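Mods, move this if it's the wrong board.
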Amino acid sequence: MLKEIILAAGCFWGVQAVFDNTPGVISTQAGYTGGTLENPTYEDVCTDATGHAEAVKIIYDDKKISTDELLDIFFTSHDSTTKNRQGPDIGSQYRSAIFYTTPEQAETAKEKIKEYSLFLKNPIVTEVVKLEKFYPAEEYHQKYFKKQGRPSCHTNFFDKEKFWKEKLSKERYNIMRKKGTEKPFSGKYVNFDEKGVYRCGACGQRLFASDSKFNTQCGWPGFDKAMPEAVKIRKDYSHNMIRDEVICSRCGSHLGHLFDDGPTKTGKRFCINSQALDFEKEKK
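Not the wrong board. Structure tokens:
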């Protein structure tokens, strides 16, 4: 399904070049949004008086690249902690902003800000705003770097995967960041019934209470419910299947999958990798 989102991250020349080279992106268009002046020109926006941001409209196939993955590229390719500035470019037209077209995009954007707040020392100032009107920029701005035969000026500002590789063990990284799966019955929490709380193995967020765990025959720990707002469910189209992937709502790490064949009254089975969990024993 094709979706539209508008992203602002400094000079739109570089932003457009980044997403033109992103698999799953169908088309891009540089333009202006977020301000009050109708039909602004580049000269108008450069006055820093229109309220508009230089932005890029992105049409993408969410079965090839999810909104979550698209926003990973957005946050890692610019400094989301500098207000009204990217490098030498200063002014509100260069602000960091996400202009969403669906409630789901807005929720994903807010969750991404929570996730990247784990990594960045300074507060994220990215705006999350409903799109009102997008004005295409002049033709000479479209695909500017491609026309000039130059690469994007937006470099990898933050390498999230390098952070996780340094933080997580090889096995845990493969499961939590690369969506791997541990061998059935190999995990330490398959046959485990102590009282306490299961936390995310990457960021430490509380995920499951021990009283939601039940014995399974599938080879992985099973839970009939998660703690409130602890996990997110998103569609997983890998391996020629359609499944519900379970991820940590705080750091976005892969935990396992959700099935509707649970033995309790919830009817749910959160099938979770042991490697994705840390256990905190109940205090007496």
